Amino acid sequence: MLRRQDALSFPWADVPAPGEAREVAPGILWARLPLPFLLNHVNVWLIEEDNGWTVIDTGCVTPDIITTWSRLLAGPMRGLPVVRVIATHGHVDHIGLTGWMVERFDADFLGTFAEWVWARISHTRDVPGSSPAHETYLARNGFDDAAVAQQVSTRHRFMDLATPLPGWISEIRDGEVVEFGGRSWDVIVTRGHAFEHASFYDPVGKVLIAGDHLLPKISPAIAVYEMMPKGDPLGDYLASFPQFDCVADDALLLPSHGSPYVGIRTRIGELREHHRRRLDDTAAFLRKPRNAADLARKMFPHVEGPENTGFALGETLAHVNYLVRRGIVADNSPAGPSATYQTIG
Asked: What confidence tier does 121 reach under pLDDT thresholds 50, 70, 90?
């Protein structure tokens, strides 16, 4: 049983309605945008400045989100301009409206270089080599021709949810200190869910803007993509947790999905245990040789639809690649057109 001081607590479990905002710390407002996905919302953080607002993440391009931003700008933000936009990372639900907002307010744009580059590539149609690489990745991992075509087509819908990113960025790096909202924030850049995900910690006020890296109820998607099919994002994710040793036990965590919470040590322990169980399940399922698509159906039996099936494949491969790199699972056909995996011994 968890001791009381070790348990998660949710001091703001009641969420703001679209277009409304709730103050969760002095000068920090919590707003929520509706998403057109199974994960149906994203949190954004509005940080009050002397001359306007810093906005952490923007959501993506939908009529509902544009309407929500119009209500936020006219209401809780009091018609004051956005002077700075910060992207925690380059996934479309976080960065999709950044170009629109930066252009509208002539705002500064802060983020990590790898996420800016990744978003410019992944949100752009007809990048040379992208579709063939995606098709090869899917076919090698057990998708038939019809499923490959469906997956590639589905990717285009995500591209339509983003405005063009600014052609420049004010880069931030791990270990730097950035100033906004009258606070000094330590930048913590991690890999796993993204290539250079940025979190921000105010050690004086004990507030961590955690982005997607430390969600309160679910693990972020830790997935392999076609651009790095042999990557080890799960190894990166698990190795990132000591970077948060500086965060106070009673710090308030502001996640991109779910509600603000307290209890970082407990949450990291839960995330470690979740992935340990998934790794054990993966190794057990692979006692008989399987391709990744078959394994994904075993690991995610209730997942339906091409978008979610694609995410399930990526998360399955993250666990497979972790085990392959550590000599627990073998890739029995590394040079062939399709890959089959099996637990060793």
From this structure: confident
